[in-house]
Amino acid sequence: MHVHRVVLNSRPGKNGNPVAENFRMEEANLPDKLNVGQVKVRTLYLSVDPYMRSRMNEDTGVDYIKPWQLSEVIDGGGVGIVEESQHTNLAKGDFVTSFNWPWQTKAILEGNTLEKVDPQLVDGHLSYFLGAIGMPGLTSLLGIKEKGHISVGSNQTLVVSGAAGACGSLAGQIGRLEGCSRVVGICGTDEKCSILVSELGFDAAINYKKGNVAEELRKVCPSGVDVYFDNVGGDISNTVIHQMNQNSHVILCGQISQYNKDVPYPPPLLPEVESVLKTRNITRERFLVLNSMDKFESGILQLSQWFKEGKLKIRETVINGLENMGVAFQSMMTGGNIGKQIIHISE
């Protein structure tokens, strides 16, 4: 059986920006018969995420993520439907998801690598399992719960960088639901700023490409910053840290401004920023959601409940077609998305 798939065509180089041409679409054949334990799936939606940038290098720099190989099929978050099954717990018509879904139209996968999902949790919006009711949602929720030290009624101010992205757009809302009294987002366009405030409940938003971020931050965070959800690293984070209060907390989620640079993760801080952390007793802890797998089930149920109650607003940017995976990846890495970047593969 013929399928289409996307493979890694070339590497951008450790310091290079990814381009659509790093990816290549080709045809492949699937075996006609399934082995015991296998299922044939049709891909419905695929995800592109910032962490994938490191998988384009020969060495990802971390032990828990393996690099993609040249001319081999790429994988990542995906959701699809079972078309045929030789697995006892999966039947035709079941919806399933995986973090290692191949970028192809159909695939034969080991049933044990798939997780069955309930469409009712997302009111039928299956792509949400790749975003708000999936890994980005869990990253935001568990990061805030475990590293944010938010307590209701203590008048805390939360700042989120990369605030219009998959994690950031959720982190601000979750911070509010957990008890922050003021939530401020930092992002890169006026349109994104407007959506954060008018749709997603942020109190204020700063466009870092306009004006002076430090000045703007002082205006919108008059009492300083108590919790900082850091999606970007770099200059923006240094600016925020300088305005953080005594005993405050940095939640280190991602460092997208550093992903195309050959530096260790998380990158070392400037000495003056290290000094601010030390003198003000600010915690800055790397948060790896995969270390909290025991909390995934309860986390997904909490996110689904908030979504169904209208307390968690979900934004997506959807591109159609497997042939556009490279375009979607490049766009996501340069801030072209609002909310989660999703690729719709089939109905």
Question: What this model shows, in words?
Answer:
One of its GO terms (molecular function) is 15-oxoprostaglandin 13-reductase [NAD(P)+] activity. Pfam families: ADH_N_2, ADH_zinc_N. This protein has helices at 135-147, 168-178, 190-198, 213-220, 234-241, 271-279, 296-308, 325-333; strands at 2-8, 23-29, 38-47, 75-85, 95-102, 106-110, 115-116, 157-161, 182-187, 204-207, 225-230, 244-252, 283-286, 316-320, 340-344. The protein has 2 domains: 2-131 and 314-344, Alpha-Beta Complex (Quinone Oxidoreductase, Chain A, domain 1), CATH 3.90.180.10; 137-290, NAD(P)-binding Rossmann-like Domain (Rossmann fold, 3-Layer(aba) Sandwich), CATH 3.40.50. Strand 14, helix 8 and strand 15 (340-344) form a beta-alpha-beta unit. The mean pLDDT is 95. The chain has 347 residues and is an alpha/beta fold. The chain contains 8 helices and 15 strands. The strands form 3 sheets. Strands 3, 4, 5, 6, 7, 14 and 15 form a 7-stranded mixed sheet that branches. It starts with a strand and ends with a strand.
